[in-house]
Structures are given as C-alpha cells and as structure tokens.
Design a protein that fits this description.
Blueprint (H helix, E strand, L loop, with lengths): L19 E6 L5 H14 L6 E5 L6 H10 L6 E5 L17 H13 L4 H6 L2 E5 L14 H7 L4 E3 L2 E3 L8 H11 L2 E2 L2 H7 L9 E3 L3 E5 L9 H11 L1 H4 L4 H10 L4 E2 L1
Parallel strand pairs: 1-2, 1-4, 2-3
Antiparallel strand pairs: 4-9, 5-9, 6-8, 7-10
Helix pairs in contact: 3-10, 6-8
Length: 260
C-alpha cells in the first residue's frame, strides 16, 4: 500500500514523485500498437514518468504485463488498472464503425478518469495517450508535467479538428440548456471557437488522443463537473456516439463563464 491509500502493483520500480502520470486505455487486440507507443516513451521521455494502462479485464496476464514493462526503460514505473464500465442498453446502433468498446472509451476519458483514485488520491496531472499515439522525437526538451506545473497550466493539446455533425446531435443544445439553467452565458472562448458564423455549433474540437490536464479541473463544481454530470445523465455518449473530444472542448472553452 502506498502513501495515497490506493494499492498499485508497479513493474520496474515505484514512482519517485506523484506530479503526473501517463495513462492509456487499451485492449489485448491493440498490443502491437501499444508496444510501439511505449517504445516511443522509452526513447523520448525526458523524465521517467509513471505509466498506467487501464483495461477491461483482458490485460491481466502476467506475461503480457512483464513484456510491456520490459518495453519501457527499467526506470519507468508501469501499472495496470482493471476498470468496469456501466451496463448500457441504449446504444447508437446506426454507427457500425463504432462498437460498444468505443462508447466505453469515450465514457472513460470524458467522465470516469478524473474520479479514479489514481487521480483523486495520488497524481495531480495526467497525460492521455492512445495505443496509436507516438512521440516522434527528438527527445523532449522539457518534462511536460514540470512545465504544466511551473506555468500553472490546467490543460494542453496539440491540434484542432472539426467533428462530424452526426456525432454531436443534441450536444450543443444540451450545453446551452446547461448554461441557461445556471443563469450563465457563453464565454468569449465559446463564442469565438465553438460558435459558427450563423450562431450555430462550429464542431471545432481539440484532438485529444494527446492531452495533458490537471485532473482536478474536471472535478470543479463551479462549472465543469456540473457539465460532465449533465452529459453523463443524458446518456448521449451511448445513444448518439458523443465523443470525449467535443465534450471536453466545450468544457474547456467555457473558460470564464459570466452571469447573465
């Protein structure tokens, strides 16, 4: 048992500090891609930051875990966390390209992750990577967690894209209903980045398979936590295939929200 009260079995070695953790959500079928992503961390990480791989009960084999730990440097801690997803029946059947596991992934990163004990009790920042995320080099000049902490940054991303309208049906309307119920108006960031020329939704999103964040910002009861609860209760991640990217983009874009 570590000092945080959360029991983690670390491969290679235990973390030397708890400023930040690199997180993946992966499946056994993604092992090749995951291994290549971990190899890029081995090559280009400036500091040996801990890595935690979340999974839905199919990465429990000790041989697989040892092999992935060996892919990393011996000074990079590696842990595995088995998570359970909510039982859902109302799934967006019209999106054959996105099976149940994809909806679970969106639910995990949009709603569940900031409330996991690793981020409520142990680590301050998280760096989300997917199994197909890679550092391409050269080695990082700065440690990203140190940089975020020194600059007092809450969120960082690498690029912006435009989402497909069919995957955010009802999300924009829900967002404005949420603001109206709290007697809030959209921030300037929402007006400039999320609102189209004709005052509709711009569909602009942070491409978040590479994002860094202070986990506590998603638990901020003054605005963001309430928005995430609204999304969770609406079940749109499962019924409409809302992605974690537009959900988080709207949350971050609220910025300073002002009373009406």
């Amino acid at each position: 048992m570590n000092e945080s009260g959360w029991n983690v079995k670390w491969f290679n070695q235990a973390p030397v500090d708890h400023l930040g953790v690199i997180v993946y959500l992966a499946r056994r079928s993604e092992l090749y891609k995951l291994n290549m992503s971990l190899l890029s961390l081995r090559r280009y990480l400036r500091k040996p930051r801990p890595v935690v791989i979340f999974h839905d009960d199919d990465l429990t084999d000790i041989g697989i875990q040892l092999a992935l730990a060996k892919t990393l440097r011996s000074d990079i801690p590696l842990g595995f966390e088995h998570i359970r997803f909510p039982a859902q029946t109302n799934i967006a059947h019209d999106h054959d390209r996105y099976p149940l596991g994809y909806h679970h992934m969106c639910q995990f990163f949009a709603i569940m992750l900031p409330h996991h004990p690793l981020l409520t009790n142990m680590f301050t920042y998280y760096w989300r990577l997917d199994s197909d995320s890679h550092l391409l080099g050269p080695p990082l000049v700065d440690d990203l967690f140190d940089y975020m902490n020194e600059k007092r940054l809450q969120y960082a991303f690498v690029m912006v894209e435009v989402d497909a309208s069919e995957y955010v049906q009802g999300l924009w309307e829900l967002f404005h209903q949420f603001l109206a119920r709290l007697c809030l108006k959209p921030s300037m960031a929402v007006k400039k980045t999320q609102t189209s020329f004709f005052s509709g939704y711009s569909y602009s999103i942070f491409y978040n398979n590479f994002e860094l964040s202070n986990a506590s910002m998603w638990r901020d009861e003054s605005s963001i936590a309430g928005w995430l609860r609204e999304v969770d209760e609406a079940k749109g991640i499962y019924s409409h295939r809302w992605g974690d990217a537009p959900i988080h983009t709207l949350a971050v874009s609220t910025g300073i929200i002002l009373p009406l």
